[in-house]
Specification:
- The protein is of the alpha+beta class.
- The chain has two domains: 7-16 and 199-313, Immunoglobulin-like, CATH 2.60.40; 20-196, 2-Layer Sandwich (Murine Class I Major Histocompatibility Complex, H2-DB, Chain A, domain 1).
- It is built from six helices and 21 strands.
- The longest helix has 26 residues, at 77-102.
Length: 355
């Protein structure tokens, strides 16, 4: 395989030393999907999955070695987390049926989801919480953290909005939990996993073109933390026309991948060296790849070698839950990225696949 020509320049995403940490929980009840758990939950710290539970295994399990340290301080932690999972499982299945009734639906594939958690600034100590519910990939009801009132973009959720808005005790409890309790647990988790969460992993960056008429894809895989940017520039200036940026996606080894694609069909080959892909990772120097034909991995044997050696990306089967609410069989291919804005849960020992 052709070597990777990576140029380091003295500009990076340096920023301040302050870091915002996040704790997120995702809950999903589903119906109409063959060979997939009817309930799935996951916890993530700084976008790294720390826990997993579903209706098949019926217990909450740790997903990182460092999160197991919580047991030394709280011996009943995983037992209580399992109990919480079992209770929420019943609640979410019931709420899914209520949502289906309100939308006048009885059959087909449907999802009822919640995402909640908090962000904490380790320099200022400021904490911000959020709580959002969705149905079939669209917002159903969302908490406004400033007013502590619920926003219902769907008429089917208005009755729930009025009920929750009038429950002042519950509103105060939620505010306290999201801004205090959640932040306290987040700090504990960060301390448990500090050596892992605060590390820096540099990526492999390469250029890939599937066919001569296809866009050229700049792909970075294996980087950590998630605070990264990627863009194309011409003659030193960032460009946007003809550029399509992919989402940052998790790899199955705790790192991340991202891509940026550029359409060069109208650009003469002799002008290609004027273009370069720039990858920026928080706290380190930029990595640039100048666009030259000799550096592009093309379809065929070279591409296969690239995939095998450099792609530490998605496992063969994952559970993809996002705005499109698709459960997908996702091959491990960096040139075919899945747009996710809500959740990608690695489904533990259970394969997630639509037959």
């Amino acid at each position: 395989m052709k070597p990777l020509f990576i140029v380091l320049i003295l500009v990076g995403i340096q920023g301040s030393s302050a870091v915002k940490h996040s704790l997120k929980y995702f809950y999903t009840a589903s119906s109409g999907i063959k060979n997939f758990p009817s309930y799935v939950s996951a916890g993530l710290v700084d976008d790294v999955q720390i826990s997993y539970c579903d209706s098949n295994i019926n217990k909450n399990i740790p997903k990182q070695d460092w999160i197991k340290k919580v047991s030394s301080e709280y011996p009943n932690y995983w037992k209580e987390e399992t109990q919480t999972c079992q209770v929420k499982q019943r609640i979410f299945k019931a709420n899914l049926e209520i949502a289906k009734q309100r939308f006048n639906q009885t059959e087909g594939v449907h999802f009822y989801q919640q995402m909640y958690g908090c962000e904490w600034d380790d320099e200022t100590g400021e904490a911000r919480g959020y709580d959002e519910f969705g149905y079939d990939g669209e917002d159903l009801i969302t908490l406004n953290p400033k007013t502590q009132e619920w926003i219902a973009p769907k008429p089917q959720a208005v009755i729930t909005k009025h009920k929750w808005d009038h429950d002042k005790d519950a509103a105060e409890h939620e505010k306290y939990y999201l801004t205090q309790i959640c932040a306290e647990w987040l700090q504990k988790y960060v301390n448990y996993g500090r050596s892992s969460l605060m590390r820096t992993d540099l990526p492999s960056v390469s250029l890939l073109q599937r066919t001569p008429s296809s866009p050229v894809s700049c792909i970075a895989t294996g980087f950590y933390p998630k605070r990264a940017e990627m863009f194309w520039r011409k003659n030193g200036e960032e460009i946007h026309d003809g550029v399509d940026k992919g989402e940052i996606l998790p790899n199955n080894d705790g790192t991340f991948q991202m891509s940026a694609h550029i359409d060069l069909r109208s650009v003469p080959t002799e002008d290609w060296p004027k273009y370069e892909c720039v990858f920026q990772l928080y706290g380190v120097n930029d990595i640039t790849n100048r666009l030259e034909k000799t550096r592009i991995l093309t379809n065929g044997r070279t591409q296969i070698k690239f995939l095998k050696k450099f792609n530490r990306c998605l496992p063969k089967r994952v559970c993809c839950l996002g705005p499109s609410v698709l459960m997908l069989h996702c091959p491990c291919r960096p040139d075919v990225l899945i747009r996710l804005d809500v959740l990608l849960v690695i489904a533990g020992p259970h394969e997630c696949r639509l037959d």
